[in-house]
Amino acid sequence: MPRRLVLTTGEPAGIGPELSVVAAGWFAGVRGRDAAVPGDAELVLVGDRGLLAQRGALDLAALPGVSVRHVPLREPSEPGRLAVANGRYVLDTLDAAIAMIGQSQAQAIVTAPVHKGVINDAGVAFSGHTEYLQEHAGVDKVVMMLAGGGLRVALATTHLPLRAVPDAITPETLDRVLRILDADLRSRFGLAAPRIAVCGLNPHAGEGGHLGHEEIDVIAPAIGRARAAGIDAHGPLPADTLFVPSHVAQYDAALAMFHDQGLPVLKHASFGHGVNITLGLPYVRTSVDHGTALDLAGTGKADPGSLQEAILTALQMTRAGDAGAGVPA
User: Fold this and answer.
1) Which of 66, 246, 276, 298 is the most exposed place for a label (fewest CB within 10 A)?
2) Signal peptide position in this chain (predicted)?
3) Is 141 known to sit in a ligand binding site?
């Protein structure tokens, strides 16, 4: 079977459709010429065929290895102008991609950015791609990880107010996150014995209890249980010194306790070329590290770098079981 990726083209009023067309042209151009994009690789764009033709200057039908799974808009779309009815259209594209995965027609989903607000305005409670895919896959826990700039940073908690973070870092949460992170670094990234650095929650990892007890009471015991289960986890480590290049280079991934503990460092190192990865799903899912950028839609100025990296990472992750597979970072 060809190595097939499904690319959902995102919010129609945003930059997703035009970036998807640009990425398709790049994909066809390097397919079979670059070892990262083998000749048997295929890319299926999921979206409204007319919209993609309108937003891109390429004839998608003429691109080798590229096809379109047509999903009709709910109403016409203009760059930069959200339409509530098209919130349902965005979910239609996700449902089509999920169906292709379920029917073994593809091995990975790559997602262009969506606008959560317009989907909620359409009457659908939607907190994000990750949660939507998790619910439809029937898994009880997934892990958000970003990769780029030579770093992999996973999150123990994601989009929470800071005051809610300590209560969300429970023994059960850390146990599950460490298991998923270790398992997917092995199975999706081809790492035989991944080394994981675990951040503390508090400054200086709690300073021996003087700046908080979460490290002593919750995080260190979770690391101990993980090590007893064969997971090579280390910490808790102070986040301000962990990300010193010579230190973080000793590990295959870092586990941050909250969103803005680890991601500013990664985005500084990789902005515009980072990849958002969902671990714990029964298939590969990658995405861009940016939003819909309504102000750039239709201008041709949006940078396709992150979407191209998301495609490359998805290909590498689907090859992890092959001998000699590359390891995205």
Assistant:
1) 246
2) none
3) no
